[in-house]
Please model this.
Amino acid sequence: MNLEKIPKLRIGELEAEIPIIQGGMGVGISLSRLASAVAKTGAIGVIAAAGIGMLEPDFSTNYREANRRALRKEIRKAREMTNGIIGVNIMMALSDFDELLRVAVEEGVDLVLIGAGLPLRNPKTLLLNELKEARTKIVPIVSSARATNIIFKYWTKNYKYIPDAVVVEGPLAGGHLGFKKGQINDPNCRLEKILPEVISVIKTFEKQFNKSIPVIAAGGIYTGADIYRFIRLGAQGAQMATRFVATHECDASDKFKEAYLKCKKEDLIIIDSPVGLPGRAIQNEFLREVSAGIRKPFRCLWQCLKTCDFENSPYCIALALTNAKRGNLNEGFAFAGANAYKVDKIVSVKELVETLVIEYENAVLT
Model:
């Protein structure tokens, strides 16, 4: 593979040969198999912690321990398969965020990506004293310059410490979005607009701490040409999730992947998630019934997401996503990015990354 034209992604002492972070896809879509395959190519593989224990046999009776055990197991499995860079995505909104973060740090993952909420906690809760000594890098996922400024100012004031990198996610991403519904199609919220604004904020803190803080673009990035475009806008790399679903190594079922292959542009819709955020998903009969007011009865075993209005929700999103991961799309649905309709075949992770590099290099030459 010719790497002369595509830059490396450096986060502290970590150095990825390919400037791509595979996005964390929760409830079993990106586990050790996908993450390790991505890391083997020289990119960064990511295990998603959300709902990770739902496939454990004792989840319904021992959910917190099941989540911790499953995360620890997946990290160790990934480490057995690759010496590459492995990260973990943990949503701030998770009720057991602190416990999962501790597992990730104890297992020595290379980086933790934090989304679905601003990491504004006291040092003990965020394990900052331990993180300063550990090799684990902290990478918040943000959707605006304002959120970036709040995080970095708060950490500067309270911890004298700042995150190691930032992922800027635009409104074309899949899954839960960090935007209000009315902002999703607002030109002022496009990734091309918010990325330079975040970079401008970050520069102040880079000077203050004499530290390089790479900014990674995310949300709707589909080709190597897209990666090149955002690197030209100042990003040091790109985070991609949707495209990695359509790989043999993705941990989702074949039926889940088929939903991507079959979907059309008009099938990609914005839903109101029970957790209080809009989300982008592939339209199916399950979502049509929910939209029509049909409730999907469930018993909430635990409030896995702090913001979930489980008493009034028409369905359990964790259960729906677990069903989808297993291939039971009659009882669930698939989250997907805005470009999922472009997926037309399943390939290996190696082939995908090689294609992205070629597309990047072709963009450089044009």
